[in-house]
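Example 3.
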Amino acid sequence: MQLTEMLSLIVKGFWETLYMTLGSTLVAYAIGLPLGLLLILTDPQGLRPMPVFNRVLGVIINLLRSVPFIILLVWVMPVTRAIMGTTIGSKATLSPLTIAAAPFIARMVESSAREVDRGVVEAALSMGASPSQVLLRVILPEAKPSLITGAAIAVTTILGYSAMAGIVGGGGLGAIAINYGYYRSNSQVMLIMVVLLVLIVQIFQEAGSRIAHKSDKRIREQN
Amino acid sequence: MGNPIIELKGITKVFGTGDGAVTALKDVDLTIDEGEIFGVIGLSGAGKSTLVRCINLLEKPTAGTVIVDGKELTKLSEKELRQARRSIGMIFQGFNLLQQRSVLDNVCFPLQLAGVPKKEARAKAEKLLDRVGLSEKKDAYPAQLSGGQCQRVAIARALSTDPKVLLCDEATSALDPTTTLSILDLLKELNRELHVTVVVITHEMKVVEAICHRVAILADNHVEELGVVEEIFHRPKSMAARQLIVPSSQVPPKESFGEGRFIRITFDGRERTDQPLVAQMVLHTGVPVSIVFADTRSLNGRLYGQMILQVPEDDSIMEKMLEFLRRAEVSFEEVI
């Protein structure tokens, strides 16, 4: 393979990976964030206790989370075809990635929200805050640093999933690694892809930690 | 005064159901007057935190009626209750400030919840911060403040909606003695200037002594005694009141006193401080004694507590002393 050919392949794969990862993270948050807040809200000790609903929602989320991604990838193909019109390419990969990530994100959001001091919630209630005000104006802002840290973990996990999508005809760096590195036994391409993936994970993780740290007002500033 | 602002009638609160049910409050009646500083004191587990939460219905009583400022809170819809809570401020032992908001934004918070325009809310908050002496800290975050400063911010925040009642749940329990006094002074000033009724929940008698006009003593989940603070200090009727007023001292083991014989004298309020008992005994017998342990306090010239004296190991001297104490009509015993 020519160098220029490989370079353009890598660049294309890189953008596809970013597109798949960030795109599905975004959609998965749109689903997972409200789900996580719903788990908190309907908790038996929550602001709107609905124990049965909470339990059912919890079980569904656990079920989705326990299906191995590689299996989910194949299972949701009909859904993907219905939504995206195709099962091949990076765009098609968005749907299994989102389905896998949303329940994971719901649990992350739930756990971040649980870290918020109950006393602060109680104080807000004593001021006459409604449940939605407590969620949006107390729990979300107070959990912000933890939510950002969670988002960094979510992005890197989804990035890892996206690399698997190459097996069923998805795109991105993972697909290149499988198609060129594995099927054609080109260990050099394989190595480059892995190094690139590692770098991307590091960048996302580091950026997430820094933003989380910077946004956290609980850390005492030196005067 | 004499105009009731908080009325609790037959408040019962049971947590849990069946065998695991725990009764936190049992048929509590309480009336708190407008403009007073009312104390609720009790040992931990007496139900005082539950009681204060029943006033703004953070805890829904299992039975009973809560009336605040003429509104029967126990009958209101959720929306009406939220509205009513704006006229009941509350501060907490753990301050419960929003950690990710600046001091100014914390004080603005209740106003924002109520839909007050931002500009107006900020102006109000700045005025309140000035009142509690923290205007220069308005851009700081709670993590940068001391405990006393945090509680001042919490007080400013609780007062931002001009409440008629301020509930204080162990508000000084996490603070050191000096800071406690300054917070209590602030509450007293605010009560006087703003005519806000203050309800103080505490386990410390010194807090009640410092600022309360009347006090209810909570024991075994009901009001054991209620009255004007001086009156209860002067003549505590219930066991619970005496326990709280009189130091229930932890007497060290006898071995730690060393060799010799020991007499324990218990003061139960019959003795007066202007009749120095121990000094008179020493003068009478001509034999000096050592005080090896003492935990007493005087209330309105009456003495409460106990004292342990070390006396020489001599039967005749001992007999003389015991005779003196018998005639003085105090409770005493030889410590064996």
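The two ends of chain A are 59 Å apart (CA to CA). DSSP finds ten helices and no strands in chain A.
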